[in-house]
Amino acid sequence: MNKNNDGFFSRKWVLRLTALVLAIFLFVYVNGSKNGFLRQNTRDSNRNSALMSNKSATIEMPLNITVDNAKYVVTGYPQTVKVRVNGPSALVTTTNNTQNFRAYLDLSKLAPGTHRVKVKTSGLNSELRATTKPQYINVNIQPRRTISMRVSVRLNSRTLDNGYTIGRPRLDTDVVQVTGSREEVDRVSRVVAFVAIPSDAKNDLQRQVTLQALDKNGQTLNVVITPKTTNVTIPISRSSDNSSSSSSEDSSSSSSSRNQDSNDITNSTTKESSTSSTNN
């Protein structure tokens, strides 16, 4: 009987120990699954929060002008504006990277004159809010005008220090189109090609020169010249022996004559330009 009792108690403790081990295993398993589920939920929640949270970004965009360019010239506006975009993080990031929207001024219904115009945006997602800096811009709308003008050459010097002389300049293009606002074009007095000649030049010079439109006071005007450059050829030749041996008085007289010829070229060109402007 004692043996039976010992066997019974032995089996009883074995069962208890087994049950304890199973309970511990089950506890660890359930607790681990719960923590894993919570961690997954936390990651998903964080991901969703990142997607749904708001952020802002400031983007520098070119400023477009909506106007009839064939009739009007617009001045006074900047080339770019800053656009602050606010909304869901994912949309803001995408917009900042692609910049697939536009900032513009709508001048299509405005008459010539000075106007204060609001900067608008288009092409943004409806969930995004945008503000521009500046929000308003003052612009000047003027009728467009185009005239034809002759080009005159202006040299930094008419004499050389090495016994060589400068001939009459030749231009590839001597008539150009000047376009701009009527007010600005009316101020154009002449179109000039400035050429600098080295004092030790011995051979003909060829230069591609950017043209400038000047008013009567020699100030550069804000107009478009077409073409904007021209090729200038400056003939340079050695002075004759007779000229070299002539008196300083004759040389001075010859130099004065050349300067007078140069002035005559410029003056006749200016007059023809003015006539062209008046006819237009």
UniProtKB/TrEMBL annotation:
Tree of life domain: Bacteria
Matches recorded under Pfam families: YbbR
InterPro entries in the record: c-di-AMP_regulator (IPR053154), YbbR (IPR012505)
Record protein name field: Ybbr-like protein
Low complexity: bias regions: 237-280
Region Disordered, residue ranges: 233-280
